[in-house]
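User: For a reading group we're discussing how well predicted structures match intuition. Take ABC transporter ATP-binding protein. Before you show the prediction, I'll give you the sequence so everyone sees exactly what went in.
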Amino acid sequence: MNAIVFDHVSKHYGDVLAVDDLSIAIEPGKTVALLGPNGAGKSTSVNLLLGLLKPSRGTVAVHGRTPDEAVKAGEMGAMLQNGALIPELSVKELIDLVRRLYPRPLDLRQILELADLTDLAGRRANKLSGGQAQRVRFALAVAGAPRILLLDEPTSAMDVESRLRFWASMHDYAAGGRTVLFATHYLEEADEHSDRVIVIARGRLAADGTAAEIKAGAGDHTVSFLIGEQPSAGLDRLPGVSAVEVADGTVTLRTADSDATLAGLYRGTTLDVRELRLSGADLEAAFLALTKES
Ligand SMILES: Nc1ncnc2c1ncn2[C@@H]1O[C@H](COP(=O)(O)OP(=O)(O)OP(=O)(O)O)[C@@H](O)[C@H]1O
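Assistant: Thanks. Here is the predicted 3D structure of ABC transporter ATP-binding protein, as structure tokens, for the group to look at:
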């Protein structure tokens, strides 16, 4: 059975159509990035999954149940944007309070270790930095040992080192066969930390696959090299090439098939090619292409 299913889900806020006929199915044990620009419908989708919002049309299912049932059964943990912490309690007290609400929580020490909070256990919640508070929100999200973990832009307040630590914690948690869905507009996070990327734009599904598949779909590889004073005529006829740029003695070829382009370059021309560079399509190019129109 799928961990998460959206079946033709739409969500209106008055006149605003935030989620538009979205259908997705996520298998258990996967780490999935929900990627989209501002206003794409990511938070709305997360809130629909948690039962905090109801779809205007369609259905959302979590392990075959309604979101409300899944939340009651302690199957879901969530880290939402700017969730408030109780300022008077220490980190340890707060986590313990929340873990006791669940039928089969993780033990306190394990949660503190997982969220890298052991050294901050006695600190009051109102004395934490933004990044530390995010780690507490992560601890609260995993406290009940949920099978599904939802993270809405989890690293937004974190510096580079905190991000690295955070993703290490997330991978530790996911390693037990748990399902993780995280919303982000950081392309590199989706690329590095997910098994699958679901791109949404204007509430609709724009792409769904591994980061590698989505990049390959963009078909935007480049081959560049120094050409110096040699003539560049005819390079546009090499296999796969869609565009040729020449600037300051350097040629850049855009190609849908860099292997065929290289074979053509070496076998079909007599150019003296120096400082050859290849670059794959990046997720950013794919993302911009996927989210720009319609
Ligand atoms: N409570 C609300 N009332 C009216 N419109 C809303 C409400 N919440 C969100 N919207 C609108 O719904 C659309 C989707 O918003 P949502 O917050 O789901 O996007 P998002 O992808 O999470 O964006 P961001 O990356 O900026 O957090 C946007 O056009 C937004 O303005």
